[in-house]
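Example 9 (inverse folding). The structure is encoded as follows.
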């Protein structure tokens, strides 16, 4: 099983999760014209560090919790894997998406 980045990150992307991932399993990119990032299920070791770091709680701990976005993460990972790293936003910065709230 792997952790999954969900819809809350799509068009939000704080980018903090990638800075704490011990296996560099998280890759940024653009999906449907919006900033996003995905977890590569091949390299994720399910340590949970990323989920704790996301200010808006966009990361779930298994594919079963959001199968649709799990599929998107798995499909995009090979495309995003060589994208350059992004500069993270501050953890206390207000969310861009009106539906997101800081934890
Ligand atoms: S659960 Fe751990 S290994 Fe998997 S993406 Fe998150 S930080 Fe990386």
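The amino acid assigned to each position is listed next.
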């Amino acid at each position: 099983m792997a952790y999954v980045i969900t819809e809350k990150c799509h068009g939000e992307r704080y980018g903090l999760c990638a800075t704490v991932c011990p296996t560099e399993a998280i890759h940024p990119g653009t999906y449907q014209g919006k900033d996003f990032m995905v977890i590569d299920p091949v390299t994720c070791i399910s340590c949970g560090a990323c989920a704790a770091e996301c200010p808006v709680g966009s990361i779930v701990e298994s594919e079963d919790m959001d199968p649709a976005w799990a599929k998107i993460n798995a499909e995009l990972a090979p495309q995003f894997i060589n994208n350059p790293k992004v500069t993270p936003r501050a953890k206390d910065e207000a969310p861009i998406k009106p539906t997101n709230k800081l934890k």
